[in-house]
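INTERNAL AUDIT FORM
Audit reference: QA-55
Scope: verify that the stored structure record matches its stored sequence.
Auditor: D.O.
Record contents follow.
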Amino acid sequence: IHPPLVVFLMLASLALISALLAGYGMAAAGKTRSVFHRVAFAAMIAATVYVIIDIEYPRLGLIRVDSADSLLSDLRQTMK
């Protein structure tokens, strides 16, 4: 069971708004903009979004839960 689309839209909105605020903050700093900070911020936002979506779809991507899949299936059957 996956979360509704609004959760993914809010996640994307959060990433865009935080990028906007970070860019606004760096623009106020003047001409001393750090390339490292821009790349690190973009990488952290991208990694966070990727991990959240990867955990949401456990059979796809890098994070796998194949061993625990049967336990979750059994638990769902007992909940019905």
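Auditor finding: record pair retrieved intact. The mean pLDDT is 82.
Action required: none
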